[in-house]
Design brief:
Blueprint (H helix, E strand, L loop, with lengths): L5 H8 L17 H10 L1 H23 L9 H10 L54 H48 L7 E10 L7 E10 L2 E8 L9 E8 L5 E7 L6 E5 L1 H5 L2 E9 L11 E6 L3
Antiparallel strand pairs: 1-2, 1-8, 2-3, 3-6, 4-5, 4-7, 7-8
Helix pairs in contact: 1-3, 2-3, 3-5
């Protein structure tokens, strides 16, 4: 058989059965045939496996996706930077209760004269983390900004990977979800209806035997003639041909050949044939003699009700 189409492979990935599928009775490939095909076709089996893995990843990503909590010190560092005064220009006022700063060497005194005495030497304390509300030294601010940029750069590939994964998962969910919604909302084809049926009996008038049954079935694609036999019919040295004979017993139409002499088999027919009176189903033995006419050797026959 040929490879199943994409819709049928998607049905298999979603575990949609024949009874739930959008395929109708006229489709060439059923789910059972497609499953049998997968057993021997690595390409189609890999396609179904890929679809199932994508659906599993999408469902798992949907359950595991959540917000990432920031580090505990992020907000305090942001407020420190917002509260810090400019690093150049005038000095900030000392906090209340602190001693007044000593004038530096060469700075004007209280009497307007410039004091040339060197100021007292002070030792610079090692850098300590600024308390809340105090400005951090410029070099520490630079270091903090550098650390923050490094953290952002380290997180960016993970965010990009997560975004790409979520986008792919969303695409798969959208495609499969849309397919499922379309399947639910699509109009279902009408179910086949048997409009007439008749037993197929041997032509022995003394003790006829029923060897099968014929039925006219209406489907979404038109009409068909179904033949089913209880056991293989003997074809002799030739083959078996199925006919529709008119009520007048003079006109007949061949509808097909039975292979192996057993059913069930189906043959497409038109409603016009039934309306014109071709209601007698006949199965005959035919020889390979290039003669298209009925051989006159009927095996079974049955008349459909009007």
């Amino acid at each position: 058989m040929s490879h199943p189409d994409d819709d049928l492979l998607a049905d298999l990935a979603l575990n949609i059965s024949d009874s739930d599928s959008h395929t109708g009775p006229g489709d060439d490939t059923s789910h059972a045939e497609a499953l049998a095909h997968l057993a021997g076709c690595a390409a189609c089996a890999d396609t179904v496996a890929d679809l199932r893995r994508a659906l599993s990843v999408a469902r798992r990503a949907h359950r595991e996706t959540g917000w990432e909590a920031p580090a505990p010190d992020v907000w305090s560092r942001i407020t420190d930077e917002l509260d810090s005064p400019p690093t150049s220009g005038s000095r900030p006022d000392p906090p209340p209760g602190s001693p007044a700063p000593m004038p530096s060497a060469g700075s004007p005194g209280s009497d307007g004269t410039r004091d040339h005495r060197p100021g007292p030497k002070t030792e610079q304390p090692p850098h300590a983390p600024p308390e809340h509300g105090q400005a951090a030294p410029p070099d520490e601010l630079t270091e903090l900004r550098s650390e923050r940029r490094d953290r952002e750069a380290a997180r960016r590939p993970r965010r990009i990977a997560w975004s790409a994964g979520l986008a792919a998962a969303a695409l798969v969910i959208g495609l499969l979800g849309g397919r499922a919604l379309w399947h639910e909302s699509a109009p279902q084809p009408p179910q086949p209806v048997t409009v007439a049926q008749a037993p197929l009996d041997t032509l022995d008038t003394t003790s006829p035997q029923q060897l099968g049954e014929a039925a006219v079935v209406r489907t979404s694609n038109g009409y068909k003639l179904d033949i089913d036999t209880s056991k293989p019919l003997p074809a002799g040295s030739g083959y078996l041909e199925v006919w529709l004979i008119n009520r007048d017993g003079k006109r007949m139409v061949s509808v097909g050949v039975m292979r192996n002499g057993e059913g069930p088999v189906s043959f497409p027919i038109t409603q016009k044939l039934i309306d014109e009176g071709y209601v007698i189903v006949d199965i005959s033995r035919e020889q390979f003699d290039d003669n298209p006419a009925h051989s006159g050797d009927s095996v079974v026959r049955g008349k459909l009700p009007a």
